[in-house]
Design goal:
It is built from eleven helices and 15 strands. Helix 2 (43-53) runs parallel beside helix 3 (69-78). A five-stranded parallel sheet has the order 2-1-3-4-5, with helices on both faces. The chain is of the alpha/beta class and 394 residues long. It folds into two domains: 13-139, Rossmann fold; 173-393, PPM-type phosphatase domain (Phosphatase 2c, domain 1, 4-Layer Sandwich), CATH 3.60.40. The radius of gyration is 40 Å and the shape is rod-shaped.
Length: 394
């Protein structure tokens, strides 16, 4: 014989309120196999029972001493603990106005005496099902509100952290952190933060190190590597390092910290103190454009992979040496410019950029005019990538 204790099945509770013991006995006989039964012979006792046990449904007589069923119903509906409990009136009163009074008092149904067993069972089952569904809905709504509050809390925290990081990144891009000797620039980001950056510092020997970069993507995700690059660039420049060493060290560091699929396209420029010679590196960026006398002199295409992809990068020995003359212009830019899209789905492209820059040089226009030209080209199309262009003027 199995002596293990078994849990009794959960039974919903029904409170029967009637001043006639016989009526309570009949209803108890009908319902006791399927429900837990409580009973009261008057209104005050019924109200006390409801506060202590909170039944799932109440069968309530109308004509009783002390308090009528209407009064009991109204009292229970005013109490937050019992306001949602369904109340079915049971009465010998058959007039329509009696039934209307019952519904006005807060009842959900009305059963006339003498009872029809199938009718009583069906109506009770229906209203218990509705009550269960309402409670489940309330429970789900509470869970949803709790989840929404948690989501709002975490969203607020993320925004605060994002703003903190954005402030750091924006400070790094401040004008005073860029040595603007020999250069002007235009930067436009899709979001507050940008994956594009420009760093320019002079070494103690007067050589100017310039680094133009474009992390994959845009926004915060692409910008978080900026502080690492900025720190390496400024500290190593201050120590007198050349761009080959700096870009090589940045490559190694990005390999350590960047997730797979994230990398940095970069152009490096090392401009001699006499402005007569420079070294150029192009690692995954669009072609560097060199103009002389307003005409395109040369293009320096990417000769190495972007930084942060492979350790065996040939940065140290692979550069372009350029002899300079007064009036020469060197333009390095991110792909957001040449990949700008017109309403006709045409790209701005390198050829259009070359002709635009040539005309701007001949007309002695500021680099900011390029922004207006790009906006006119795009018209209503959305700028989907960060834009950076640097003009190094000799």
């Amino acid at each position: 014989m199995d002596n293990a204790l078994t849990e009794e099945p959960y039974l919903q509770t029904i409170l029967i309120v009637d001043d006639e013991a016989n009526n309570i006995s009949i209803l108890n006989e009908i319902l006791q196999d399927d429900y837990r039964i409580l009973f009261a012979f008057n209104g005050p006792d019924a109200i006390n029972l409801c506060k202590n046990y909170k039944p799932d449904l109440i069968l309530l007589d109308i004509i009783m001493p002390d308090m009528t069923g209407y009064e009991v119903c109204k009292s229970l509906k005013k109490d937050q603990l019992t306001t949602e409990v369904p109340i079915i009136f049971i009465s010998a009163l058959e007039k329509a106005e009696d039934k209307v009074r019952g519904f006005d008092a807060g009842g959900v149904d009305y059963i006339t005496k003498p009872f029809e067993v199938p009718e009583v069972q069906a109506r009770i089952k229906t209203h218990l099902t509705i009550y269960d569904l309402k409670r489940e809905l309330v429970k789900q709504n509470q869970q949803l509100r709790t989840a929404q509050k948690e989501l709002e809390y975490h969203h607020t925290r993320l925004l605060q952290e994002r703003h903190f990081i954005e402030e750091i990144l924006v400070n790094i891009r401040r004008v005073e952190n860029i040595d603007t000797d020999n250069l002007s620039y235009l930067m436009e980001s899709v979001e507050t933060t940008t994956g594009d950056f420009l760093f320019s510092k002079k070494r103690a020997d007067g050589v100017q190190n310039i680094l133009v970069g474009d992390f994959t993507g845009h926004g915060l995700q692409s910008a978080v590597g900026g502080p690492v690059v900025y720190d390496l660039f400024t500290s190593r420049t201050a120590q007198g390092a050349g761009m080959a060493d700096i870009m090589g060290e940045i490559n190694v560091k990005l390999l350590e910290i960047l997730p797979s699929g994230t990398f940095l396209a970069a152009c490096g420029v090392e401009l001699n103190s006499d402005n007569k010679e420079c070294l150029l590196w192009n690692c995954g960026m669009p072609s560097i454009l060199i103009f002389r006398g307003g005409k395109l002199l040369d293009t320096i295409k990417s000769h190495e992979m972007a930084l942060g992809i492979t350790k065996n990068n040939g940065i140290a020995c692979n550069n372009k040496k350029l002899e300079l003359q007064t009036g020469d212009r060197i333009f390095a830019y991110s792909d957001g410019i040449v990949e700008a899209i017109s309403p006709e789905n045409k790209m701005f492209g390198e050829e259009r950029l070359i002709s635009t820059l040539s005309e701007m040089i001949m007309q002695k226009q500021e680099l900011d005019n390029l922004k207006d030209i790009l906006n006119q080209f795009r018209e209503s199309t959305i700028c989907e990538d960060d834009i950076t262009i640097v003009d190094i003027s000799i």
